Amino acid sequence: MSTLFDEQVSFLAEDHFLVLYWAAQSEGAGVRYNITNCFDDLKFSGMTRTKQTAMATVAALAALRFVDLRDEGNRKNIYITTHGAKALRQLVLEKAFSPKPSLHLKGIAS
Amino acid sequence: MTIGIGGAGSKIATALNPDATVINVSETELGKIPEAGRRILASLHHAGGQFRGSRKDPEIGREAFQSLRRELSQMARGDLVFSSTGGGTGNGITAALIEELTNLDEEIQPSQKTQFALILPFAKLEPAEFTRNTIAILGGPVSQAIDSGSTGNIFLFSNRLKFESRLREDRFNRMIADSLSVFQAVPEKNDTLGLLDGHIDYEDFAHYISRPFFNHFTYFDYNPSASFAGQLAANPNPLLLPPESPIEALFLLEVPAGGDPTAFYEILEYFAKIDVSPVYSVVENPERTKPFVTVSLLYSRKPAELLDDFNRISDEHTQAKVRKSLEQHIQLPKLEVNLREHAEREAKQRGAGEDVLSVLKRLGKL
Questions:
Q1: What ipTM was predicted for this assembly?
Q2: Which range has the worst mean pLDDT, A1-15, B156-170, B246-260, B330-344?
Q3: Residues B345, A64: contact at Cβ < 8 Å?
Q4: Which of B351, B356, B365 sits opposite A82 (nearest CB)?
Protein backbone atom coordinates (compact mmCIF):
# COMPACT_ATOMS: atom_id res chain seq x y z
CA MET A 1 0.00 0.00 0.00
CA SER A 2 2.74 2.39 0.92
CA THR A 3 4.49 1.58 -2.35
CA LEU A 4 1.39 2.45 -4.31
CA PHE A 5 1.02 5.67 -2.31
CA ASP A 6 4.67 6.61 -2.92
CA GLU A 7 4.24 5.93 -6.61
CA GLN A 8 1.06 7.96 -6.77
CA VAL A 9 2.78 10.85 -5.05
CA SER A 10 5.86 10.66 -7.17
CA PHE A 11 3.74 10.99 -10.30
CA LEU A 12 2.05 14.15 -9.10
CA ALA A 13 2.96 17.20 -11.17
CA GLU A 14 3.48 20.80 -10.06
CA ASP A 15 -0.15 21.78 -10.68
CA HIS A 16 -1.32 18.94 -8.41
CA PHE A 17 1.11 20.07 -5.74
CA LEU A 18 -0.09 23.67 -6.00
CA VAL A 19 -3.76 22.73 -5.79
CA LEU A 20 -3.09 20.65 -2.66
CA TYR A 21 -0.99 23.45 -1.23
CA TRP A 22 -3.57 26.16 -1.90
CA ALA A 23 -6.40 23.99 -0.63
CA ALA A 24 -4.45 23.41 2.61
CA GLN A 25 -3.60 27.10 2.98
CA SER A 26 -7.23 28.14 2.40
CA GLU A 27 -8.54 25.66 4.92
CA GLY A 28 -5.90 26.94 7.35
CA ALA A 29 -7.06 30.49 6.77
CA GLY A 30 -10.68 29.42 7.22
CA VAL A 31 -11.83 30.33 3.72
CA ARG A 32 -13.50 28.15 1.13
CA TYR A 33 -11.57 27.25 -1.97
CA ASN A 34 -13.60 26.40 -5.05
CA ILE A 35 -12.87 25.24 -8.59
CA THR A 36 -13.11 28.78 -9.98
CA ASN A 37 -10.56 30.07 -7.44
CA CYS A 38 -8.36 27.13 -8.31
CA PHE A 39 -8.60 27.90 -12.04
CA ASP A 40 -7.77 31.58 -11.41
CA ASP A 41 -4.74 30.63 -9.35
CA LEU A 42 -3.45 28.11 -11.88
CA LYS A 43 -3.92 30.64 -14.66
CA PHE A 44 -2.17 33.36 -12.63
CA SER A 45 0.75 31.01 -11.93
CA GLY A 46 1.05 30.27 -15.65
CA MET A 47 0.24 26.55 -15.22
CA THR A 48 -2.71 26.52 -17.59
CA ARG A 49 -4.88 28.72 -19.71
CA THR A 50 -8.02 26.61 -19.83
CA LYS A 51 -10.61 25.67 -17.27
CA GLN A 52 -10.67 22.10 -18.62
CA THR A 53 -7.06 21.56 -17.57
CA ALA A 54 -7.72 23.01 -14.16
CA MET A 55 -10.77 20.74 -13.88
CA ALA A 56 -8.69 17.72 -14.96
CA THR A 57 -6.06 18.45 -12.29
CA VAL A 58 -8.68 18.69 -9.59
CA ALA A 59 -10.52 15.61 -10.90
CA ALA A 60 -7.29 13.57 -10.81
CA LEU A 61 -6.66 14.60 -7.20
CA ALA A 62 -10.26 13.78 -6.33
CA ALA A 63 -9.98 10.37 -7.99
CA LEU A 64 -6.87 9.65 -5.94
CA ARG A 65 -8.90 10.75 -2.85
CA PHE A 66 -6.34 13.44 -2.16
CA VAL A 67 -9.05 16.07 -2.21
CA ASP A 68 -12.72 15.95 -1.51
CA LEU A 69 -15.04 17.87 -3.86
CA ARG A 70 -18.22 19.05 -2.25
CA ASP A 71 -21.15 20.77 -3.85
CA GLU A 72 -21.99 23.68 -1.58
CA GLY A 73 -24.54 26.15 -2.89
CA ASN A 74 -23.71 26.44 -6.54
CA ARG A 75 -19.97 26.12 -5.90
CA LYS A 76 -17.74 23.05 -5.95
CA ASN A 77 -15.45 23.50 -2.98
CA ILE A 78 -12.16 21.68 -2.62
CA TYR A 79 -11.14 20.15 0.74
CA ILE A 80 -7.86 18.38 1.31
CA THR A 81 -8.19 14.83 2.73
CA THR A 82 -5.83 13.13 5.15
CA HIS A 83 -4.32 11.23 2.19
CA GLY A 84 -3.85 14.50 0.39
CA ALA A 85 -2.20 15.96 3.51
CA LYS A 86 0.24 13.07 3.63
CA ALA A 87 0.99 13.43 -0.09
CA LEU A 88 1.56 17.15 0.36
CA ARG A 89 3.85 16.51 3.33
CA GLN A 90 5.89 14.12 1.22
CA LEU A 91 6.21 16.60 -1.62
CA VAL A 92 7.18 19.40 0.79
CA LEU A 93 9.77 17.27 2.53
CA GLU A 94 11.26 16.15 -0.79
CA LYS A 95 11.23 19.81 -1.84
CA ALA A 96 9.86 18.56 -5.13
CA PHE A 97 8.21 21.84 -6.03
CA SER A 98 8.27 25.36 -4.64
CA PRO A 99 5.02 26.97 -3.48
CA LYS A 100 3.47 29.87 -5.39
CA PRO A 101 1.13 32.49 -3.97
CA SER A 102 -2.59 32.05 -4.33
CA LEU A 103 -4.39 34.94 -5.91
CA HIS A 104 -7.51 33.94 -4.05
CA LEU A 105 -5.88 34.06 -0.61
CA LYS A 106 -4.07 37.24 -1.49
CA GLY A 107 -7.29 38.88 -2.56
CA ILE A 108 -8.94 37.98 0.71
CA ALA A 109 -5.96 38.88 2.85
CA SER A 110 -5.28 42.27 1.27
CA MET B 1 -34.56 112.24 3.74
CA THR B 2 -33.17 109.08 5.24
CA ILE B 3 -33.68 105.51 4.09
CA GLY B 4 -33.11 102.39 6.19
CA ILE B 5 -32.75 99.02 4.50
CA GLY B 6 -33.06 95.74 6.42
CA GLY B 7 -33.53 95.32 10.16
CA ALA B 8 -30.43 97.11 11.45
CA GLY B 9 -30.51 99.83 8.78
CA SER B 10 -34.15 100.63 9.52
CA LYS B 11 -33.61 100.93 13.25
CA ILE B 12 -30.69 103.34 12.90
CA ALA B 13 -32.38 105.35 10.15
CA THR B 14 -35.44 105.94 12.32
CA ALA B 15 -33.23 106.74 15.31
CA LEU B 16 -31.68 109.54 13.27
CA ASN B 17 -34.85 110.62 11.56
CA PRO B 18 -38.28 109.42 12.74
CA ASP B 19 -39.68 110.21 9.28
CA ALA B 20 -37.21 107.87 7.57
CA THR B 21 -38.36 105.45 4.92
CA VAL B 22 -37.77 101.84 5.93
CA ILE B 23 -37.52 98.87 3.60
CA ASN B 24 -37.66 95.18 4.42
CA VAL B 25 -38.71 91.89 2.87
CA SER B 26 -40.55 90.77 5.96
CA GLU B 27 -43.75 92.30 7.32
CA THR B 28 -42.80 91.06 10.77
CA GLU B 29 -39.52 92.96 10.64
CA LEU B 30 -41.21 96.09 9.33
CA GLY B 31 -43.64 95.91 12.22
CA LYS B 32 -40.77 95.97 14.71
CA ILE B 33 -39.87 99.53 13.73
CA PRO B 34 -42.02 101.67 16.03
CA GLU B 35 -41.94 104.88 14.01
CA ALA B 36 -41.19 105.46 10.41
CA GLY B 37 -42.29 107.90 7.75
CA ARG B 38 -42.97 105.27 5.19
CA ARG B 39 -42.71 101.48 5.22
CA ILE B 40 -41.96 99.64 2.03
CA LEU B 41 -42.33 95.89 1.76
CA ALA B 42 -40.05 94.67 -1.01
CA SER B 43 -41.83 91.80 -2.71
CA LEU B 44 -40.53 88.34 -3.10
CA HIS B 45 -42.07 85.61 -5.16
CA HIS B 46 -43.05 83.56 -2.21
CA ALA B 47 -46.30 81.66 -1.93
CA GLY B 48 -46.34 81.50 1.87
CA GLY B 49 -46.61 85.25 2.47
CA GLN B 50 -43.81 87.47 3.58
CA PHE B 51 -43.34 87.03 7.25
CA ARG B 52 -39.80 85.77 7.18
CA GLY B 53 -36.66 87.80 6.61
CA SER B 54 -33.98 86.94 4.12
CA ARG B 55 -32.20 84.65 6.57
CA LYS B 56 -28.75 86.15 6.01
CA ASP B 57 -28.94 85.37 2.31
CA PRO B 58 -28.12 88.46 0.20
CA GLU B 59 -29.54 86.77 -2.90
CA ILE B 60 -33.01 87.13 -1.38
CA GLY B 61 -32.30 90.84 -0.87
CA ARG B 62 -31.13 91.20 -4.45
CA GLU B 63 -34.26 89.50 -5.73
CA ALA B 64 -36.39 91.82 -3.60
CA PHE B 65 -34.55 94.85 -5.00
CA GLN B 66 -36.04 94.12 -8.42
CA SER B 67 -39.52 94.87 -7.09
CA LEU B 68 -38.55 98.43 -6.10
CA ARG B 69 -35.67 99.06 -8.44
CA ARG B 70 -36.98 102.15 -10.19
CA GLU B 71 -38.58 103.65 -7.12
CA LEU B 72 -35.59 103.12 -4.86
CA SER B 73 -32.93 104.36 -7.26
CA GLN B 74 -34.95 107.58 -7.70
CA MET B 75 -35.78 107.91 -4.03
CA ALA B 76 -32.17 107.41 -2.94
CA ARG B 77 -30.95 110.41 -4.94
CA GLY B 78 -29.34 112.88 -2.56
CA ASP B 79 -30.34 110.77 0.44
CA LEU B 80 -28.55 108.91 3.18
CA VAL B 81 -29.05 105.16 3.10
CA PHE B 82 -28.47 103.04 6.20
CA SER B 83 -27.80 99.36 5.96
CA SER B 84 -25.85 96.63 7.68
CA THR B 85 -23.45 94.61 5.53
CA GLY B 86 -23.92 91.38 7.43
CA GLY B 87 -27.55 90.37 6.98
CA GLY B 88 -29.37 89.36 3.86
CA THR B 89 -31.89 92.13 3.23
CA GLY B 90 -29.65 95.13 3.88
CA ASN B 91 -26.66 93.64 2.14
CA GLY B 92 -28.58 92.34 -0.88
CA ILE B 93 -30.71 95.43 -1.56
CA THR B 94 -27.86 97.86 -0.84
CA ALA B 95 -25.39 95.95 -3.02
CA ALA B 96 -27.91 95.93 -5.87
CA LEU B 97 -28.66 99.64 -5.35
CA ILE B 98 -24.96 100.58 -5.41
CA GLU B 99 -24.48 98.53 -8.57
CA GLU B 100 -27.50 100.21 -10.12
CA LEU B 101 -26.04 103.65 -9.33
CA THR B 102 -22.59 102.63 -10.57
CA ASN B 103 -23.93 101.36 -13.88
CA LEU B 104 -26.17 104.32 -14.67
CA ASP B 105 -25.58 105.81 -18.10
CA GLU B 106 -26.24 109.37 -16.98
CA GLU B 107 -23.91 111.40 -14.82
CA ILE B 108 -25.35 111.95 -11.34
CA GLN B 109 -25.29 115.57 -10.17
CA PRO B 110 -23.24 116.06 -6.96
CA SER B 111 -26.32 117.16 -5.05
CA GLN B 112 -28.11 113.98 -6.19
CA LYS B 113 -25.46 111.53 -5.00
CA THR B 114 -26.49 108.96 -2.44
CA GLN B 115 -24.54 108.66 0.79
CA PHE B 116 -24.29 105.32 2.48
CA ALA B 117 -23.88 104.49 6.14
CA LEU B 118 -22.83 100.87 6.29
CA ILE B 119 -22.77 99.02 9.57
CA LEU B 120 -20.06 96.38 9.54
CA PRO B 121 -20.28 93.33 11.82
CA PHE B 122 -17.83 92.67 14.62
CA ALA B 123 -16.39 89.62 12.95
CA LYS B 124 -15.03 88.07 16.13
CA LEU B 125 -18.39 87.59 17.80
CA GLU B 126 -20.98 87.72 15.02
CA PRO B 127 -22.00 84.85 12.71
CA ALA B 128 -19.61 83.73 10.00
CA GLU B 129 -22.26 84.49 7.34
CA PHE B 130 -22.13 88.16 8.36
CA THR B 131 -18.40 88.20 7.73
CA ARG B 132 -18.78 86.46 4.37
CA ASN B 133 -21.55 88.82 3.24
CA THR B 134 -19.46 91.82 4.30
CA ILE B 135 -16.46 90.60 2.33
CA ALA B 136 -18.70 90.21 -0.71
CA ILE B 137 -20.22 93.70 -0.58
CA LEU B 138 -16.99 95.54 0.30
CA GLY B 139 -14.92 93.69 -2.28
CA GLY B 140 -17.58 94.05 -4.98
CA PRO B 141 -20.12 96.87 -5.21
CA VAL B 142 -18.53 99.26 -2.64
CA SER B 143 -15.11 98.93 -4.20
CA GLN B 144 -16.55 99.64 -7.67
CA ALA B 145 -18.55 102.58 -6.36
CA ILE B 146 -15.43 104.22 -4.89
CA ASP B 147 -13.53 103.61 -8.12
CA SER B 148 -16.26 105.01 -10.34
CA GLY B 149 -17.23 107.86 -7.99
CA SER B 150 -20.93 107.04 -8.32
CA THR B 151 -21.89 107.61 -4.69
CA GLY B 152 -21.46 110.30 -2.09
CA ASN B 153 -19.68 109.79 1.24
CA ILE B 154 -19.69 106.29 2.63
CA PHE B 155 -19.63 106.00 6.42
CA LEU B 156 -18.22 102.73 7.67
CA PHE B 157 -19.68 102.13 11.12
CA SER B 158 -18.42 99.16 13.05
CA ASN B 159 -20.25 97.01 15.59
CA ARG B 160 -16.98 96.65 17.49
CA LEU B 161 -17.82 99.17 20.22
CA LYS B 162 -21.26 97.61 20.71
CA PHE B 163 -19.81 94.18 21.40
CA GLU B 164 -16.73 95.27 23.28
CA SER B 165 -18.61 97.61 25.60
CA ARG B 166 -21.67 95.32 25.70
CA LEU B 167 -24.12 98.04 24.75
CA ARG B 168 -27.86 97.67 24.35
CA GLU B 169 -28.82 97.69 20.69
CA ASP B 170 -31.15 100.69 20.91
CA ARG B 171 -28.52 102.60 22.86
CA PHE B 172 -25.86 101.81 20.26
CA ASN B 173 -28.20 102.83 17.42
CA ARG B 174 -28.91 106.05 19.27
CA MET B 175 -25.15 106.68 19.58
CA ILE B 176 -24.69 106.29 15.83
CA ALA B 177 -27.63 108.61 15.14
CA ASP B 178 -26.42 111.22 17.64
CA SER B 179 -22.92 111.07 16.31
CA LEU B 180 -24.14 111.62 12.73
CA SER B 181 -26.33 114.49 13.91
CA VAL B 182 -23.26 116.31 15.23
CA PHE B 183 -21.62 116.02 11.80
CA GLN B 184 -24.78 116.95 9.93
CA ALA B 185 -25.26 120.02 12.13
CA VAL B 186 -22.11 121.64 10.71
CA PRO B 187 -23.80 123.86 8.07
CA GLU B 188 -26.62 124.77 10.43
CA LYS B 189 -24.18 125.96 13.10
CA ASN B 190 -22.28 127.87 10.43
CA ASP B 191 -25.56 129.51 9.47
CA THR B 192 -26.99 130.31 12.90
CA LEU B 193 -23.95 131.05 15.05
CA GLY B 194 -21.74 134.09 14.73
CA LEU B 195 -19.21 133.46 11.98
CA LEU B 196 -15.62 134.38 12.88
CA ASP B 197 -13.62 132.91 10.00
CA GLY B 198 -14.04 130.75 6.91
CA HIS B 199 -17.46 129.36 6.07
CA ILE B 200 -19.23 126.11 5.33
CA ASP B 201 -22.69 126.90 4.03
CA TYR B 202 -25.27 124.31 3.02
CA GLU B 203 -23.96 124.26 -0.51
CA ASP B 204 -20.35 123.68 0.58
CA PHE B 205 -21.49 120.94 2.91
CA ALA B 206 -23.62 119.28 0.22
CA HIS B 207 -20.66 119.35 -2.13
CA TYR B 208 -18.41 117.83 0.54
CA ILE B 209 -20.76 114.95 1.33
CA SER B 210 -21.22 114.20 -2.37
CA ARG B 211 -17.52 113.28 -2.72
CA PRO B 212 -17.12 109.55 -3.42
CA PHE B 213 -14.89 108.67 -0.47
CA PHE B 214 -15.10 107.05 2.93
CA ASN B 215 -15.92 109.60 5.61
CA HIS B 216 -14.46 109.44 9.10
CA PHE B 217 -15.73 112.24 11.29
CA THR B 218 -15.04 112.94 14.92
CA TYR B 219 -15.49 115.75 17.44
CA PHE B 220 -13.82 116.70 20.69
CA ASP B 221 -12.96 119.57 23.04
CA TYR B 222 -10.01 121.28 21.49
CA ASN B 223 -7.09 122.50 23.58
CA PRO B 224 -5.33 125.22 21.53
CA SER B 225 -2.15 124.94 23.59
CA ALA B 226 -1.59 121.25 22.69
CA SER B 227 -0.78 119.87 19.25
CA PHE B 228 -3.80 119.22 17.03
CA ALA B 229 -2.26 116.08 15.53
CA GLY B 230 -2.00 114.48 18.97
CA GLN B 231 -5.54 115.42 19.90
CA LEU B 232 -6.93 114.13 16.62
CA ALA B 233 -5.08 110.83 17.02
CA ALA B 234 -6.34 110.51 20.58
CA ASN B 235 -9.97 111.18 19.68
CA PRO B 236 -11.04 109.05 16.73
CA ASN B 237 -14.75 108.32 16.41
CA PRO B 238 -15.09 104.94 18.18
CA LEU B 239 -18.20 104.11 16.15
CA LEU B 240 -16.43 104.35 12.81
CA LEU B 241 -13.58 102.34 11.31
CA PRO B 242 -10.26 104.13 11.83
CA PRO B 243 -9.37 106.46 8.95
CA GLU B 244 -6.51 106.26 6.49
CA SER B 245 -4.52 109.32 5.49
CA PRO B 246 -7.09 111.86 4.28
CA ILE B 247 -7.55 113.17 0.76
CA GLU B 248 -9.94 115.94 1.73
CA ALA B 249 -11.04 117.34 5.06
CA LEU B 250 -13.59 119.60 6.71
CA PHE B 251 -13.64 121.12 10.18
CA LEU B 252 -15.84 123.39 12.23
CA LEU B 253 -14.27 125.09 15.24
CA GLU B 254 -16.65 126.44 17.85
CA VAL B 255 -15.10 128.86 20.31
CA PRO B 256 -16.78 130.13 23.49
CA ALA B 257 -18.04 133.69 23.61
CA GLY B 258 -15.05 136.00 23.59
CA GLY B 259 -12.71 133.07 22.86
CA ASP B 260 -9.67 133.23 20.63
CA PRO B 261 -10.72 132.42 17.06
CA THR B 262 -7.11 132.18 15.78
CA ALA B 263 -6.70 128.70 17.23
CA PHE B 264 -7.81 127.33 13.86
CA TYR B 265 -4.45 128.27 12.25
CA GLU B 266 -2.82 125.40 14.12
CA ILE B 267 -5.40 123.05 12.57
CA LEU B 268 -4.83 124.48 9.10
CA GLU B 269 -1.10 123.98 9.52
CA TYR B 270 -1.63 120.37 10.51
CA PHE B 271 -3.58 119.73 7.31
CA ALA B 272 -1.08 121.71 5.20
CA LYS B 273 1.65 119.35 6.41
CA ILE B 274 -0.23 116.37 5.04
CA ASP B 275 -1.09 118.24 1.80
CA VAL B 276 -4.79 118.61 2.44
CA SER B 277 -6.63 121.92 2.09
CA PRO B 278 -9.66 121.61 4.31
CA VAL B 279 -13.00 123.39 4.06
CA TYR B 280 -13.46 125.09 7.39
CA SER B 281 -15.50 127.43 9.47
CA VAL B 282 -14.94 129.10 12.83
CA VAL B 283 -17.99 130.17 14.80
CA GLU B 284 -18.70 131.63 18.20
CA ASN B 285 -20.92 129.40 20.30
CA PRO B 286 -21.89 131.03 23.62
CA GLU B 287 -23.03 127.68 25.00
CA ARG B 288 -19.49 126.33 24.92
CA THR B 289 -17.04 126.82 27.71
CA LYS B 290 -14.12 125.32 25.79
CA PRO B 291 -13.28 125.33 22.10
CA PHE B 292 -14.95 122.38 20.36
CA VAL B 293 -13.97 121.01 16.98
CA THR B 294 -15.82 118.77 14.55
CA VAL B 295 -13.46 117.22 11.99
CA SER B 296 -14.22 115.07 8.99
CA LEU B 297 -11.62 113.22 6.93
CA LEU B 298 -12.31 111.77 3.50
CA TYR B 299 -10.15 108.83 2.55
CA SER B 300 -10.30 106.13 -0.07
CA ARG B 301 -8.73 103.18 1.60
CA LYS B 302 -8.88 100.33 -0.84
CA PRO B 303 -11.56 97.86 0.20
CA ALA B 304 -9.02 95.14 -0.54
CA GLU B 305 -6.99 96.33 2.44
CA LEU B 306 -10.14 96.84 4.40
CA LEU B 307 -11.09 93.25 3.74
CA ASP B 308 -7.91 91.80 5.19
CA ASP B 309 -9.25 91.66 8.72
CA PHE B 310 -12.53 90.19 7.62
CA ASN B 311 -10.81 87.63 5.47
CA ARG B 312 -8.53 86.59 8.27
CA ILE B 313 -11.41 86.15 10.68
CA SER B 314 -13.49 84.37 8.06
CA ASP B 315 -10.59 81.93 7.60
CA GLU B 316 -10.42 81.35 11.32
CA HIS B 317 -14.17 80.73 11.43
CA THR B 318 -13.89 78.19 8.63
CA GLN B 319 -10.96 76.40 10.19
CA ALA B 320 -12.72 76.19 13.52
CA LYS B 321 -15.84 74.85 11.81
CA VAL B 322 -13.91 72.19 9.93
CA ARG B 323 -12.14 71.20 13.11
CA LYS B 324 -15.43 70.91 14.95
CA SER B 325 -17.14 68.88 12.29
CA LEU B 326 -14.15 66.56 12.16
CA GLU B 327 -14.36 66.09 15.89
CA GLN B 328 -18.07 65.43 15.72
CA HIS B 329 -18.46 63.24 12.69
CA ILE B 330 -15.33 61.20 12.23
CA GLN B 331 -14.13 58.68 14.72
CA LEU B 332 -10.64 57.51 14.05
CA PRO B 333 -10.17 54.02 15.52
CA LYS B 334 -7.03 53.46 17.47
CA LEU B 335 -4.76 51.25 15.39
CA GLU B 336 -2.69 48.81 17.30
CA VAL B 337 -0.14 47.39 14.96
CA ASN B 338 1.83 44.35 15.99
CA LEU B 339 4.80 44.28 13.65
CA ARG B 340 5.46 40.58 14.03
CA GLU B 341 1.87 39.60 13.24
CA HIS B 342 1.85 42.02 10.37
CA ALA B 343 5.03 40.53 8.92
CA GLU B 344 3.63 37.03 9.27
CA ARG B 345 0.44 38.04 7.48
CA GLU B 346 2.45 39.58 4.68
CA ALA B 347 4.57 36.45 4.38
CA LYS B 348 1.45 34.30 4.30
CA GLN B 349 0.13 36.40 1.45
CA ARG B 350 3.28 35.78 -0.50
CA GLY B 351 2.72 32.03 0.04
CA ALA B 352 6.06 31.56 1.72
CA GLY B 353 5.07 32.10 5.29
CA GLU B 354 3.49 29.68 7.63
CA ASP B 355 4.72 26.23 6.96
CA VAL B 356 2.00 24.26 5.20
CA LEU B 357 2.83 21.25 7.34
CA SER B 358 2.02 23.05 10.54
CA VAL B 359 -1.23 24.12 8.90
CA LEU B 360 -2.06 20.53 8.08
CA LYS B 361 -1.19 19.47 11.61
CA ARG B 362 -3.34 22.18 13.05
CA LEU B 363 -6.19 21.00 10.85
CA GLY B 364 -5.70 17.47 12.14
CA LYS B 365 -5.04 16.13 8.62
CA LEU B 366 -1.67 14.64 9.52
A1: 0.85
A2: B330-344
A3: no
A4: B365
